[in-house]
Amino acid sequence: MARAISTRRKIGITALAWALGLLIFFPILWTFLTSFKSEADAIADPPLFLNFHWTMENYFAVQERSDYFKHFWNSVVIAGGSTLLGLIIAVPAAWSMAFVPGKYTKDVLMWMLSTKMMPPVGVLIPIYLIFRSTGLLDSKTGLVIVMTLINLPIIVWMLYTYFKEIPGEILEAARMDGATLREEIIYVLTPMAIPGIASTLLLNVILAWNEAFWTLNLAASKAAPLTTFIAGYSSPEGLFYAKLSAASIMAIAPILIMGWFSQKQLVRGLTFGAVK
Amino acid sequence: MAIKRALLNTAVGLGLVAGFSAAASAETLTIATVNNGDMVRMQGLASEFTAANPDITLEWVTLEENVLRQKVTTDVATKGGQFDIMTIGTYEVPIWAKQGWLVSLDDLPAEWDKADLLPAIAGGLSVDGSLYAAPFYGESSMVMYRKDLMEKAGLTMPDAPTWAFIKEAAEKMTDKANEVYGICLRGKAGWGENMAFLTAMSNSFGAKWFDENWNAQFDQKPWADTLNFYLDLMTNYGPPGAANNGFNENLSLMQTGHCGMWIDATVAASFVSNPKDSQVAEQMGYALAPDNGLGKRGNWLWAWSLAIPAGTDSTDAAKKFVAWATSKEYTALVASKEGWANVPPGTRTSLYENSEYLAAAPFAKMTLDSINAADPTHPTVDPVPYTGVQFVAIPEFQGIATAVGQQFSAALAGTETAENALKAAQDLTVKEMKAAGYN
Predict the structure, then answer these.
(1) In whole angstroms, what is the distance from residue B39 CA to residue A206 CA?
(2) Is B224 exposed, middle or buried (0-12, 13-18, 19+ CB in 10 A)?
(3) How far apart are the CA of A59 and the nearest CA of chain B, in angstroms?
(4) B296 and B180 in one domain?
(5) Does the model's ipTM exceed the 0.85 cut?
(6) 0.90 exceeded by the pTM?
(7) In this model, does residue B20 exceed pLDDT 90?
(8) Which chain B residues are closer than 8 Å to A123 by Cβ?
(9) Is residue B19 assigned to a domain?
(10) Does any domain span residue B121?
């Protein structure tokens, strides 16, 4: 009897999880379906689910109008570059905060996090003027620097949390065996923190990929990533939902595929330490 | 070894590419533009320009209107120099020109034919007699209505209706049981959304934003008359949830047969009359925006135009492109490639004398009459210190009108009374204008 209740509960929880999952996934599914409709079918009333004439015309139209691969490559460079640069700065920073904390370490951590609480538009004009003076407007280098700076607090915080879980004695043992600081971080700490570093890396690539405020304001054409690409398809004067959907799918597909293949690391990274 | 060879090949390849680039040394124009259909078409046809001007290459930045506005404003105000040509509207041109941010276009070639521009459009893009932007396409607003529903209601739409007639027609056309609503109007808050419509409408009710001393006028009777009439129309004969409806939502309602009348941008006529997208294309009729017999109609005036920021290093090349894209030859090019119905409307007198265009666009005459009925230099019944029909051409307007629009949208949603919305609008406008130093 007890077993029957348990099975029923299991079915109930599974059904609930599926329902919630589908509910969350539905907007993406709808965008995907709309991208294969004609503009007239996209606004049909009542809405058409699967019974419409499937067409690839929106994808062709989008590619014809915008150079998707240029925007894609810019996104890869900006998201990848800023994450790598961020990790290079954050690993030693998190090491020192986790293993040799000082009197003000907690304050520094909180201060770093507090920079995320400031509305970005508040510093738009100063940063724009700095970029103009230094010739960084519409350059990938400039955007890599800005993305690194805005995501650095998150990278440091995540790595700090992982490093705190690693026993300091292991590092001490390495030091007793004659390892230098550089060797200690590269050969002892980093391999042990690989899962944490991997999930930090993935999360930051996603954050940098989706960042729209700075990329829209500081890039025009040469360094424009996929956020600029998609902003060209939302129109307040004209119903172009099918083309907008096709552009959306093209913009999110790479990150969606990456997220799909690395979901185990992502979930592990995001829930790390949650039950302690 | 293989890696070394690959690197060597890449280096040689890059060297060759760099060599070719240096040899070509073409001047690059970066053009910021909105993603409306006519602009996207211009981007597609620009290869004709570059073929005739091989020393100029074009980089396009095509963005949604609000994103574009924010971006080009930041750039022009800081002289960022990211763009050589910008697509801007009738609102920005006088403000930016007065700031010295735009290059004058008075010296465009004679064959460009400045005298051919529609006077109302050219007036909105000029400051002290100098033209600061070349109009790419112009629009006004008008009544678009269902002839079948009008006939069923036993009425005939006059070419120049009054607001009283619109109300009567809306009442008779409404059939809520079948989800047909007599009238669809903008309700979504925003200076370019509900406030564009309501400001233009208020002109026909004798209202104004400011008196000659820049005192806010929302506490005056004409504004109360405007808002109460609008709320009465929309509450009784408008679609449900109208406070969230902007251009696109109403376009969708009209195309799917849920609206009897829609008063909005003339550019919408080409969408609602296109049988590919619209279920009611065959039934569409057009009329001037309504009036109240006070000498002003409730229609606006807008032109998307090409302007050259003062910070560009490529003024001559930019002028060359602007002259090409806004010329009569460009219009002929679009007609030859995509048909007369697709040429950018509302900028040149000659287009409305072209019989082929008049035959292809049944809404052409009403568009022209609507544009001619708007006067951006004298927009209101009483004299005012500002220009602009559906806006006030001062930098503070965007912020103030969006806040006022939120009050009026709340009144339409029923979360605020008309009286309180007007009082809040008056208070916030007085406060902002005082802070800006107008009084």
Answers:
(1) 32
(2) middle
(3) 16
(4) yes
(5) no
(6) no
(7) no
(8) none
(9) no
(10) yes
